[in-house]
Structures are given as structure tokens and as C-alpha cells.
Amino acid sequence: MSIQSVVKKVVKPVVGERGWQALRRVKRKAVGNNRPKAPVAPPKPTGVAAISDDLCKLAAHFKTDKWGAHKYAQHYQRYLQHLRGEEFNLLEIGIGGYNRAGEGGASLRMWKHFFPQAQIYGMDIQDKSFVDEDRITTFIGDQSAPESLLSIAEKIGKLDVIIDDGSHRSPHVITTFHTLFPLLSDGGIYVVEDTQSSYWPEWMGSEDLDSPDTSMGLLKRLTDGLNYEEFVTEGYEPTYYDRNIRGVHFFHNLVIIEKGVNAEGTNKKRALKARYGTSPASTS
Ligand SMILES: C[S@@+](CC[C@H](N)C(=O)[O-])C[C@H]1O[C@@H](n2cnc3c(N)ncnc32)[C@H](O)[C@@H]1O
Description:
By secondary structure, this protein is α/β, with parallel strands linked by helices. It has helices at 3-31, 55-62, 73-80, 106-114, 146-156, 170-180, 215-225, 240-244, 268-271, 273-276, and strands at residues 89-93, 119-124, 136-140, 159-164, 184-193, 245-251, 254-259. 35% of the residues lie in helices and 16% in strands.
């Protein structure tokens, strides 16, 4: 028999039912009931916080065409996911809204919510300073002018992610790439959006798929650079891009470039014995 039962058996006949209930109320007040408390579930996030780890939903929420007119958000999710908890700098060229006052900033807001520790920078040929807020900073600049790009890059400092969603004119895309890619951090990501304009003469592109002067022409050449260690041309001097790009990913109208040391080595001397006059024992 428990202590409580013994107490009840002895005390209740003395104090009666009402007295007994009064004593129980006093006890409950003093020590509470002994039932274990159910664990309190953390409050469920609501609003933007509830969708902040799904970039497609965030893009739709903030109304950037990265999900909808285009299908870019799914690829960004895959290639930028690893940066979600990191402190880093992201620069997007092209804030949106063109010369319409008070319009633009959708993608910058999306990035801010996807990357809670990042500083988000935007650059546009138009003044978009109304978009500025905590962790979002905008600059006025022209991506066709290297000095404009360089001065903004200097103000930002470290560049970890660069997205070109600006004029989409091939000469501008090419100038921007040559100017900013060398400044991108090791392990950084460089993205070119809307590469369809590369095929449109009306947008300074070309119908010639092999044209060296289009954005796609430049980006396609980078893929050969991934394999520069396999080239057999005597005295070939690897370019900066050969040595510092370790991945180029092509999607419909979108290209994602991974910066990093590209020096995995080659087995060409073993495979091409006649050319290099080597024996299997002397090469690896
Ligand atoms: C497609 S919108 C950017 C959309 C935005 N990134 C988004 O996803 O919500 C392109 C922007 O690039 C800007 N732009 C056009 N030419 C430019 C140039 N030469 N330099 C910088 N920005 C330019 C336009 O003013 C426009 O706001």
C-alpha cells in the first residue's frame, strides 16, 4: 500500500469528504500534480521563415523570375545550399525594375532570406537605393565598364558569389566575367543568367554557335580549360581560367561556374607512350 493510500485511509474518516477535498486542493497548489509535463514543441515558423529553406518557394514569394518565367531557383538551391549557414558576400549584377522608380530588389530579398548570415550586394545601372536595408546594399554601376565593376568590388571586399543578371548583352557579360572572376574567392561561385541572349543578334549575340564573341562562346571555351592538363600541344601555357576553374555546369539559359584549383594531374604520358617516349615504369 502506498503512503498516499495510508494517509487517505487514516485522515479522510476524520475530516470527512469536504475536508479531504480541501486538503487535496491545498496539496495541489503547493506541489502541483505529479504528472510529467508534456514537452513543449518549439513554435512553428510562420510567413517567410516557414519557406526559407526552399529557394523555389522564396523566389515565388518575392516575385523574382528566377522561379516562374525561368527555372533557375532549383539549380541555385543545389549549388549554393552549402553556404546557407555561412557568413559570406554575394553580389548580384542587375537588381531589377530597370528605370521604373520603386521597382526591383526581388532577388536580393530572396537571397537575404535564404542566406541568414550573408551580406547581399546588388549593382544596377539605375539607382535602386530604395532596396537598401539590413544586410542588403545596392550600388549604381555599369557592368560594361571595368572601372565601375572594380570600384564596386573594392567597396565590397571579398566576393564569394557573383551573379550576372544584368544587361545580358554578350560584350557586357564577357567584360564582367574577365573583370570580376579573378577577384572571386577560391571556392566561390560565378553565375551567368539568361544565356539565351547569346544567340540573338538583336541583343549583341550571334547566330553563329562558334562565335568567339558571345557569352556562350566564352563559357563553352571554359569547358576545354577543365582538361588543359590533357592537351598535347607543346609548350601550351595554361590560362588563369584553366588553372582556377574546377567545374562548369550548363543548364537551360543558366551557367554555374565553380572556382577552385584545377590541378588533378594527367595520365597522358602513360596513355601516349609513342608520343612521349616513356615506359610504364617511368610514368604514373
Ligand atoms: C532582369 S533585371 C534583374 C532582375 C533581378 N536580378 C531579379 O532576379 O529579381 C536586369 C537589371 O539589369 C539592369 N541593367 C541593365 N543594363 C545594365 C548594365 N549595363 N549594368 C548594370 N545593370 C544593368 C537593369 O536596369 C535591370 O534592373
